[in-house]
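Reminder to self: tokens first, then the designed residues, so the page reads top to bottom the way the pipeline ran.
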């Protein structure tokens, strides 16, 4: 009976465990609990995926992101507050400390409610800029919803985002069949600084969109905050510790009303969209992908076993991960990589055009080699390469530094010593071709000396001639 109960308990725990690879404690900050009904489907989906949700008001005395110096939550969602401030527990410093401690944050903005100063300061710290007009929103007169915004044109319709580069995996393309539409109602556009390599936009505004303040009663905008792809509608930042921060420019994107809404696009440039039909938005699936990436449900890499060993003449050594090698040794290096995909670990495969590389370096790389897949299991792929150590002794590092957009960072370093040849490991002189002239010179010298001695010993002295009187004859 106990065995059956234990089995049922383990099965129950397996079904309710968090999908995220970094924990399930999620804090939702919203000013009024009654607003939960607007996001019931979004929040319900999070609970169904195993997250443990807690709700707090931004100015609640119970709100605390840290307890006893440790994170109290794994993830944080900040919905737009109605008040101008967020309280002392959500200051820019505390939020940055939360990120530095490995926490993930999903921040939503709304053009109908001014963004609090503390959040503006936080975004400036991350080199994300908002319009100076707190009520400015993104409008597009060629890509809007004719049903909900026939006059304001502030509900922008955009397709699924493309990959930012051909060699970067696209986690937000949906089923990849195309034709899906995402509705972005009354979004706050963001512009990104050029100095931070950690920022990556997920969704940019169409080229005909621009930032506009509806309170300005003018027919045209002379100096807009941003236009076209300059405006990011959804921005991500992955810190060096792989903590993730996402800014969604429209909180309404997550509301139930837009999960089930039907939209009809306007006629765009060149007559694009003529005869368009009503279609259901893909906001729910898109919101799941954005949230899943932010909360480490996708795009997380894990390093398994790392090995390096001698491989002289194709014969692998039984000693793995030695601390010392010799110059010009043949060495094999291997690393095991896994990727987390929603609820399980799967083998990691780089996108087409990308490759995992190994650096063998001292102060600078002596070798930079591509790692090729050797074996694959249900949960991982082993990448390996073989090479000859340089003719340089010293302290070297096997280093794998794989940092790509939307993937967690992989930085593994193993330090080894490379010694020079021992006195009994040098090759014999006759093996070294550069010594052949010297060896030949020695041989010629010895041969000449032996020949001289032999000739001298073999030569017979000339006999002396004497006169009758006994004198020598010259």
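Designed residues (474 positions):
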């Amino acid at each position: 009976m106990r065995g059956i109960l234990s089995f049922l308990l383990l099965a129950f725990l397996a079904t309710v465990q968090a999908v995220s690879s970094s924990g399930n404690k999620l804090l939702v900050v919203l000013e009024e609990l009654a607003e939960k009904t607007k996001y019931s489907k979004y929040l319900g989906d999070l609970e169904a995926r195993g997250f443990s949700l807690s709700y707090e008001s931004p100015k609640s005395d119970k709100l605390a992101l840290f307890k006893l110096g440790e994170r109290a939550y794994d993830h944080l969602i900040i919905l737009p507050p109605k008040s101008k401030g967020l309280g002392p527990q959500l200051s820019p410093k505390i939020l940055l400390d939360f990120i530095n401690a490995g926490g993930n944050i999903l921040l939503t903005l709304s053009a109908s409610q001014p963004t609090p100063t503390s959040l503006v300061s936080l975004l400036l710290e991350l080199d994300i800029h908002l319009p100076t007009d707190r009520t400015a929103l993104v409008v597009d007169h060629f890509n809007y919803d004719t049903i909900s915004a026939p006059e304001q044109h502030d509900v922008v319709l955009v397709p699924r985002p493309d990959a930012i580069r051909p060699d970067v995996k696209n986690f937000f393309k949906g089923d990849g069949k195309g034709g899906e539409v995402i509705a972005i109602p009354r979004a706050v556009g963001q512009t990104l600084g050029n100095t931070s390599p950690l920022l990556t936009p997920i969704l940019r505004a169409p080229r005909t969109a621009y930032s506009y303040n509806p309170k300005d009663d003018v027919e045209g905008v002379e100096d807009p905050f941003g236009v076209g792809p300059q405006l990011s509608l959804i921005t991500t930042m992955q810190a060096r510790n792989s903590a993730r921060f996402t800014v969604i420019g429209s909180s309404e994107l997550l509301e139930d009303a837009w999960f089930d809404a039907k939209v009809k696009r306007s006629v765009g440039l060149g007559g694009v969209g003529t005869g368009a039909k009503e279609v259901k938005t893909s906001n729910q699936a898109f919101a799941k992908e954005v949230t899943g990436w932010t909360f480490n449900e996708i795009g997380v890499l894990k390093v398994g076993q790392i090995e390096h060993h001698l491989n002289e003449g194709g014969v692998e050594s039984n000693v793995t991960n030695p601390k010392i090698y010799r110059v010009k040794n043949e060495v094999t290096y291997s690393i095991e990589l896994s990727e987390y995909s929603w609820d399980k670990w799967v083998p990691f495969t780089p996108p087409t055009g990308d490759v995992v590389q190994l650096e063998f370096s001292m102060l600078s790389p002596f070798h930079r080699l591509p790692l090729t897949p050797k074996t694959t299991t249900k949960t991982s792929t082993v990448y390996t390469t073989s090479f000859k150590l340089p003719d340089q002794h010293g302290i070297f590092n096997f280093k794998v530094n794989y940092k790509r957009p939307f993937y967690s960072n992989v930085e593994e370093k193993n330090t080894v010593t490379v010694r020079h040849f021992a006195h009994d490991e040098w090759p014999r002189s006759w093996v070294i071709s550069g010594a052949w002239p010297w060896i030949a010179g020695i041989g010629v010298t010895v041969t000449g000396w032996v020949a001289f001695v032999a000739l001298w010993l073999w030569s017979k002295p000339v006999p002396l001639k004497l006169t009758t009187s006994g004198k020598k004859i010259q």
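The mean pLDDT is 88.
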